[in-house]
Amino acid sequence: MGRPIKGPSALGSDPRRLLQLTVVLAVMDFKLRFFGSVLGYVWQLMRPLMLFGVLYIVFTQFVKIGEGVPFYPAVLLTGVVLYQFFSEATSRSLASVVDREGLIRKIEFPRLAVPLAAMLTAYFNLILNLVAVLIFVFATGVKPRWEWFALPVFLILLGLLAAGVCMLLAALYVRFRDLKPIWEVLLQVGFYGSPILYPLEIIPSETAQRLIPMFNPLATILVQFRHSLIDPSAINSWDAVGGARYLVVPIGISAALVVLGVWVFQRRAPDLAEEL
Amino acid sequence: MDAPAVAVKGVSKAFTVPHDRQHTLKERAMRPFARATGERFEALKDISFEVEPGEFFGVVGRNGSGKSTLLKCLAGIYPVDAGEIYVRGRVSTFIELGVGFNPEMAARDNVIMNGILLGLSPREARERFESVIEFAELEEFVDLKLKNYSSGMHVRLAFSVMIQVDADVLLIDEILAVGDAAFQQKCFDIFFALRDQGKTLIFVTHDMAAVENFCHRALLLERGETVMIGEPSQGVADRYLQLNFAGVASAGAGSVERAGDGAARVTEAWMEDERGERQGSFPQGRPCTFRASVHFEQAVEDPSFAVAFVNAQHQNVFVASSATQHERTGRFEAGESASFSVTFDNALAPGRYLLSTLIAHPGAGNAIVDRWEGIVSIVVTGARPAGGTVDLAHDLRVERAGATALDSAERRRGLR
Q1: Residue A251 near residue A153 (C-beta atoms within 8 A)
Q2: pLDDT tens digits, residue range B256-288?
Q3: Any chain A CB within 8 A of the CB of B96?
């Protein structure tokens, strides 16, 4: 009888095709941005660097938060780069389905490739930016350690967390177009709600010191990065939440976001072509 | 018999056309319990058909008949509400040429991207890249950005990908066949090439002439329902024309289409092909005949009979009138009937024509006895639209000065 045509879905029938499409779409997008202008990479790097520069001056010269924090510039830059990845990945994915309307309305393919590709493009940027971060970290006098090899695990966790949010936003944005300004505000809140400008220990309330890394998985990852990449004397993520078993909370939140993202997107995927 | 390449069983599809779409969270929050209201619009109702491997299957219908929706359901872009669709082999959908083409990227990237989107694996896409470029004859421009391509190169590239994707079942929307005559010709050449390769193709269009030229069978849709399935020349074309002109007639019902003093009336008019059969569509280059029956209510002396062919641009392309003949038509008594016919070799360019009849009193005033505009509508079909209003029989020669005359005479006639 042949193969039944069931209409579009998020995952498609062949997971390999989803993966290939995601990668191809992401690579093409990435290429476009980098080879579009001669200084593509420089511009890409400029955004976190400029933000870092401004924040560095403000928080070491005017408001002296950075004082007494070992390797404050390295910590700040790492935080800015990681957060900018999250911000870029989610904002791009949010609009991705609408942006790729032409594809979605005209060919059949696993729909999930669209937000995942947007997220993956941001991930490629992150990796490039991390090269710059690493050079900077070296330059500020941090010694390389074996613990660095554990960092990819946290990068993958960060990617999963972002992917979950990306899928959720991409699916909802088709229906709710005011999600964009809302999300921009939430990203601002997240920036100040994560230990980027300030180290965790500066927070006066001890409860807040524990709750932030517990309920904000981004904060958990940032804390761990500071500990593993830059300053072994800084608190690690399990101590920050008050014991390794409490890590279940941020990990659980991330996992729940991924599951929710896939579920919502899966439910919405068949009708995307009609609703656009 | 082989298993069908495409089997469609009882497919239905409805859209909800929202009255008032909630586009923001705010609107949703203000009225949390308001269900999205809307009218159900049934785009497809219980459609079933099978397409054999190697068959060219046309789906024709007027605007809004559901043909494009059907294509999207077949392609898996829309989920169906009821029914099942089965397809054997790889399917590629061409609703638009070069889906995903990005003007900022070089041809190489675009070809690979487009191929992957159409169902190739990245490896296959890279392997076929060379043959795509070769087929498109764009070897010199591989690294040129697409935005610097001429539109012709763009189309060549897109078509080339389409051929090289090597799908077993192609779903093609009529959008491909719009454009100038040269572009259409290119499309048609490619369709014939695909047909020779034994591909299965489903072609959605409102152009019956194209279906007659390419398709083995056709499905006629009207308001989401199957009107008939059959060979284009046997019934489908006629039925389609009837549907079309039913629409035309009702649309024009209010306007003055008929005038005259009523001394005589055209009771019926039609067009016949060379075999004397009534038709709605006529191949270019063949003889055909217009016929009308006239009934006289009152006696009329020397009336003139005329028929005019008006094309889609409202130009009188061809007028045949007894007034220009030397012989007089004579006196017709009340109650008498007459027939009026015009036979000609069909030199009209492909397209749609409305025929108008005119019976007039003799003399300079030409007082109208009966004028009926748009009494008959015909379609002239032809595979080679050259762009003119008429396509006269001609000899075409190109001769090189000096050397032996290179004779590329081409008889325009009888090439079909």
Answers
A1: no
A2: 467 778 888 888 888 988 888 888 888 888 889
A3: yes
Query: In this complex, is the C-beta atom of B76 within 8 Å of any C-beta atom belonging to chain A?
Result: yes
Distance CA B199, CA A203 (A): 69
What pLDDT, in 10s, does the model give residues B372-385? 887 888 888 776 65
Contact B122 A20 (CB under 8 A): yes
Residue corresponding to tokens 């043959």: B131
Does any CB of chain A come closer than 8 Å to the CB of residue B18? no
Please report residues of A whose CB lies closer than 8 A to that of B88.
2-3
Mutation pick from A22, A96, A101, A106 vs chain B, by most beta carbons of B within 10 Å, is A106
pTM for this entry: 0.72
Would you state the pLDDT for residue B416?
37
Task: Write the CA distances from B359 to B337, B341, B356, B372, integer angstroms.
Answer: 13, 13, 10, 9
Q: What is the distance in angstroms between the Cα of B210 and the nearest Cα belonging to chain A?
A: 23
Min Cα separation B204/chain A (Å): 14
- For residue B305, how many other CB atoms are within 10 A of its CB? 25
B395 in contact with A at a CB cutoff of 8 Å? Answer: no
Rounded to the nearest angstrom, the minimum Cα separation between A115 and chain B is 16
SS3 A84: helix
Helix (H) or strand (E) holding B99: none
Closest approach of A75 to chain B, Cα-based (Å): 37
User: How far apart (Å, rounded) are the C-alpha atoms in residues A209 and B53?
Assistant: 68
* Torsion angle defined by CA atoms of residues B120, B123, B128 and B133, in that order, rounded to the nearest 10 degrees: 100
Interface residues from chain A to B (CB-CB < 8 Å):
1-8, 16-17, 20-21, 23-24, 28, 31-32, 36, 102-109, 175-179, 182, 270-271, 273-274
Q: Give yes or no for B74 touching A (CB within 8 A).
A: yes
- A220 to chain B, closest Cα gap in Å: 30
Question: Smallest Cα–Cα separation from A221: which of B270, B141, A229, A117?
Answer: A229
Give the span between the Cα atoms of A267 and A11, in whole angstroms: 11
Say how far apart CA B345 and CA B114 lie, in whole Å. Answer: 46
Q: Which residue of A has its CA nearest to B26?
A: A178
Neighbours of B73 (CB within 10 A): 25
How far separated are the first and last CA of chain B, in Å rounded?
32
Contact call for residues A183 and A91 (beta carbons, < 8 A): yes
Least CB–CB distance from B77: residue in A8, A177, A182: A8
Question: With an 8 Å Cβ cutoff, is B43 touching chain A?
Answer: no
Give the largest CA-CA distance in chain B. 87
Inter-chain residue contact B77 with A105, CB threshold 8 Å: yes
Alpha-carbon radius of gyration of chain B: 27
Positions of chain A with pLDDT lower than 70, given as ranges: 1, 36-38
Q: Which secondary structure element, helix H or strand E, spans residue A182, and what is its range?
A: helix A179-192
Q: Which of B393, B303, B395 is nearest to B345 (CA)?
A: B393
Most A-contacting residue of B95, B117, B202 (CB-CB within 10 A), to test interface? B117
Q: Which residues of chain B have pLDDT under 70?
A: 1-2, 18-23, 28, 30-38, 175-184, 241-242, 244-257, 364-366, 383-387, 402-416
B43 neighbors B15 (Cβ within 8 angstroms): yes
Which residues, in sequence order, are bridge partners of residue B82? Answer: B12
CA separation for the pair B182, B384 (Å, rounded)? 9
The pLDDT, as a whole number, for residue A244 is: 84
Say what the pLDDT of residue B412 is: 41
- Three-class SS state of B36: coil
C-alpha–C-alpha distance, residues A75 and A227, integer Å: 10
